[in-house]
Design a protein that fits this description.
The chain has one domain: Up-down Bundle (Butyryl-CoA Dehydrogenase, subunit A, domain 3). It contains five helices and three strands; from the N terminus they run αβαβααβα. By secondary structure, the protein is mainly alpha-helical. It is rod-shaped. It has a three-stranded antiparallel beta sheet, with no helix packed on it. Helices cover 66% and strands 5% of the residues. Helix 1 runs antiparallel to helix 5.
Length: 150
């Protein structure tokens, strides 16, 4: 059924992935020196829209998580898609950390840049996908045990 707990976890994983568009990784005051040194901060925010790799991985992990929700009748495929989404989330986490590090290294001395909650969202998405996979396995185990009883 679609109201199983793994569907909730997959929905939360997709929501936390899409939340990266609203919550930036970094914020700063926009001024000419900073924009010239770090073009990604031209709007004062670093988010997935500023990097094509981050954008693609963010959209991919959210779309795959949403698709996996509706595969509740085919639990093995749902589990495989969840593992795939978790792998993409892991890549997203690494790329977000790398992009943030590169951006911080390019910031000129004297400029301030603040970390924001958006940096935690790829890790949160990964945790939700792991919880969903764990519950898909429990569901599959339960169905197999019920089949043995019949």
């Amino acid at each position: 059924m679609i109201q199983r707990i793994q569907s909730v976890f997959l929905f939360l994983a997709a929501g936390s992935a899409l939340g990266q568009f609203m919550l930036p990784y970094l914020t700063s005051a926009t001024n000419a020196a900073l924009v010239f040194a770090v073009p990604a901060l031209n709007d004062g925010r670093l988010n997935p829209v500023d990097n094509i790799g981050l954008l693609a991985l963010t959209l991919m992990t959210s779309v795959v998580s949403l698709i996996a929700i509706f595969l509740f009748r085919n639990r093995p495929l749902q589990g495989k898609l969840t593992i795939g989404a978790a792998a993409v989330s892991l890549l997203l986490l690494v790329l977000a950390a790398f992009t943030t590090k590169q951006t911080l290294d390019a910031v000129p001395a004297g400029e301030t840049v603040q970390y924001n909650a958006g940096l935690a969202l790829p890790a949160l998405s990964l945790v939700f996908q792991w919880l969903a996979f764990r519950n898909i396995g429990k569901d599959e185990k339960l169905v197999r045990s019920m089949d043995r009883l019949r």
